[in-house]
Every structure is written in C-alpha cells, then in structure tokens.
C-alpha cells in the first residue's frame, strides 16, 4: 500500500471529515443557492482576471474583473427591473388585453376538451376574478411564507455572490506559510471549486442541446404545421439562459413555452408540454453522459447519485448531486483509491 493510498496524516483525515460535514449540512440549512452563487462569481472573476491580466498589469487584473462583473450584474438587474416595471405599467393601463387573451384560451379549451374538465373552467372574467380571489384567501398564509422565503433566498444569494467576489479578489496565501489544517482545508476547497468548474462547462453543453431541441420545435416543426408561436426566438434565447441552471432552469423555460403555446391553442400547448417533458427526461441522460465525461464517471454512477440525493434532499439534492459527486471522485482519485 502506497503512502498516498490513504490520508497522509490525521490532519488530512480531519480536513476530509470537516469538508464532508460541511457539504452534508449545506442541504438542510438551505445554503446551496448562496454556495453556487458564490462559486459562480468566483469562477467568473478568475476567468475574467486571467483574460485581463494578459493585457494589463496583474496588479489591477482582479479588481478590474470585479468592476466588470459588477457593471454587468447591475446592468442585467436594472434591465430586468425596468422591464418588469414597464410591463406592470402596461398591464395597469390596459389589463383587459391580457385578460381577453386568457379568456380566448379558455373558450378554445371549452370547444376542445370534455365537459368533465370544462365544467371547472371559468366562463367569464368575473368568474376568473372570483376564482383567483377565493384561491388567494385560502392560501394567504402560504403566500406570505413564499414571500418571506423568496426574500431570504435573494438575500442569501447576494451574500454568496459578495463572498465569492471577496475570496476571488484577495490573493490566496502560500500553503507553505499556513498551518497544516488550514493548508489541508484549502486543498479541499480548491478541489470543490475544480469540481464546480467541470460541472459548469458541462452544463453549458447541456443547455445548448436543450436550446437546439426547443428551437427545432418552435422555429421549424410548428411553422411547418401551420402554427406560429409568438416570441419564438425570444423563448429559444431564454431556454439557453435558464438552461444554465441545472434541472430547475429547464423547468422554468418549459413553463414559459407552454404558457405561450396555450395562447395559440389548447392543443398546441399540450403538444409542446409533451415534447418538453420528453426533453426534460432527456436532460437526466444528458447530465449523466456529458457531466460524467467531465468527471470520468459512467452514466449510471451519476444517475444513481442524482437519484439518491433527490430522494434525500429533494430538488436541491438533484442540483447538488453532480457537483458533490465530482468532488468525491476527485478526492478518491487523488488518493489512488479508484
């Protein structure tokens, strides 16, 4: 047995146990979102810094990378809030237009669906308003809870991004000057960052595949079938952007496409829903195939890890599974255990 086949010292073992405990506690304490946000900012700043440092003094590379990232993030947030504000103003000035479109969808559904279903659909705007009001009264406590949880999540993500930027800007100390446990823990964190880096680039490939498949149905198949999908090109772009988020991003883009499909007809919406469900199931295989290639894992290994993590921690576990499993593989391979 070689010296490297097991942890070299109790310090190494202690750092591994601390890292394992940290990763386990991340899930029940709902720290996955800020962790991913911080690591994403860290990766972006590192890559920007390398690009900038080739052209300017390395002394200003990382601060300049942070400045560029802040401008981009603030610009994106400003654009989102401005668009949302303009949309709200438009709806307030002319809410009847969207309501008419929704009632048209309901009318088409009445003519195409069986009576067992259409009996539960509103027949007028007044009925629709009453249904919404009744639902809001019954779920008022749940709506308040959702609001608090959403605010807490946004604050946590923002703090994670700030911490990621701070860690990226501050130079890492030389390991030779660090205490043994601190040096070992830094090695663990570096390997986790390496695992995250591999998963991010794999997720970009997955998003591209999802975007191409969605673009085929929205821009090719539907027009050939005589159905023009509104905002088709925008939906394709959003599919790529949201697809960068593991699993949940695909759900968001699918929901948007289905809603737009329903504005055309109930059957177009249902066809798009079935097609997108197939793409969503395909994403599990893509995750296993593409991500597995980045971390040298077989498809069944990653699928099993995703299944186990999802059953224990829910959707968060499903998102974290590729990253945690990639980190585990890196550690085991370094100690020549696999």
Give your account of this protein's structure.
This protein is mainly alpha-helical. About 85% of the residues lie in helices and about 0% in strands. It has helices at about 10-25, 30-55, 60-95, 95-110, 115-120, 125-140, 140-170, 180-225, 230-245, 250-265, 265-295, 300-315, 315-335. The protein is globular, with a radius of gyration of 24 Å.
Please provide the count of β strands: 0
The helix count comes to 13
- CA radius of gyration: 24 Å
The span between the termini is 13 Å
> How many domain units?
2
* Biggest sheet character: none
Estimated share of beta-strand residues: under 5%
Low-confidence stretches: 1-6
Structural class assignment:
mainly alpha
The dominant shape is globular
| Helix share, percent | over 70%
Short description:
About 85% of the residues lie in helices and about 0% in strands. It has about 350 residues and is an all-alpha fold.
Keywords:
single chain, 338 residues, mainly alpha, 13 helices, 83% helix, 0% strand, disordered N terminus
